[in-house]
Write a structure and sequence with these properties.
The protein is of the alpha+beta class. 19% of the residues lie in helices and 38% in strands.
Length: 126
């Protein structure tokens, strides 16, 4: 299972984050896409939408189930990956190249709860 070392992770929702200068790129992990199976649809938020910690910002639907994604910290959407509208299964092909959204972090409460690749590996091994 691919777990890039340069990212941080949410162990509960199986999300990955690339954070630089208060901007985060967010996607689902390889573990999540494998668990979901063939992804059929990704509900994307609109640019400039704002979410508080705990708000649902997206839904990833597969043949097996729909998984709601909740904001682990407050943010404003800078960009949604509209390529996923036509090709949601791209996440199955490469979960880390096919991000869901890019956001501006508006309150970093919750950022410190994200974990390293090694800690994420341990969490999914349990």
């Amino acid at each position: 299972m691919n777990i890039p070392q340069n990212l941080v992770y949410d162990t509960e929702q199986h999300l990955w984050f690339a954070i630089e200068d208060n901007v985060a790129t967010i996607g689902i992990t390889d573990f999540a896409q494998d668990s979901l199976g063939d992804i059929l649809f990704v509900e994307l938020p609109d640019e400039d939408d704002e979410f508080d910690r705990g708000d649902e910002f997206s839904v990833v639907e597969s043949a097996k189930k729909a998984q709601s994604l909740e904001a682990p910290f407050a943010f404003k959407v800078l960009e949604s990956n509209e390529d996923l509208d036509d090709d949601p299964e791209a996440i199955n092909e490469d979960a880390y190249a096919n991000w869901i959204i890019k956001v501006q972090i508006t309150d970093d409460d919750g950022v410190d709860e994200l974990v390293s690749a090694d800690a994420y590996q341990e969490a999914i091994a349990e």
